[in-house]
Amino acid sequence: MSVSNPDLARVPEDPRRRFLRQLHLLYDSSGRPSARRISAVIRQNNSLPDTVSHETVAAVLRGDLIPSWSKVECIVTSLGDWSINKYDRGVLLRHFHGLWLDTVQARETVIDGIPGAAIGAIHTASSPVVGAAVPTPTKSQCHVD
Question: How far apart are CA 133 and CA 81, in angstroms?
Fold first, then answer.
């Protein structure tokens, strides 16, 4: 059973919302596999840096959890491999790492009185891969022949 899209109306317009929106675009282009299937494939793939339980996969897709990068990397790699868009893995991972980093910084960081969300917006705007002008890598950036 696929995981429903999170209710983005309850998520402020911030890095976490951008992360969730992008993750669900990837999830949709991958055929919306079940959390159990995603978890099982990750567990079987020894080249991935971590394992991810089906509960964690579902929590991430629902927007209830932003886990460590190693777990996000596993989820994104698996979904990217299944996606009909044929993303270049390195480009896709750099894109999601930027989104994840912005989200973590927004949650954890306050520097000189500036909330992390503002710092994340600066990173996103200046990133060559991640930014408002390029919400997801284009097919020409990611297509593998």
Answer: 24
Residue 7 counted as domain residue: no
Distance of alpha carbon 145 from alpha carbon 140, whole angstroms: 11
Q: Express each pLDDT in 24-50 by its tens digit.
A: 999 999 999 999 999 999 999 999 999
Over range 8-29, report the average pLDDT. 88
SS3 65: coil
Dihedral sign for Cα atoms in the order 65, 36, 49, 76: negative
- Read off the tokens for 1: 């059973």
Tell me whether residue 108 is in a domain: yes
Report if residue 28 sits inside a domain: yes
pTM: 0.74
The Cα–Cα gap between 34 and 119 comes to 34
Residues in CB range of 37: below 8 A, 6 or more apart: none
Host domain of residue 92: 12-130
Write down the residue that tokens 């969730």 correspond to. 20
Residue 143 lies in a domain: no
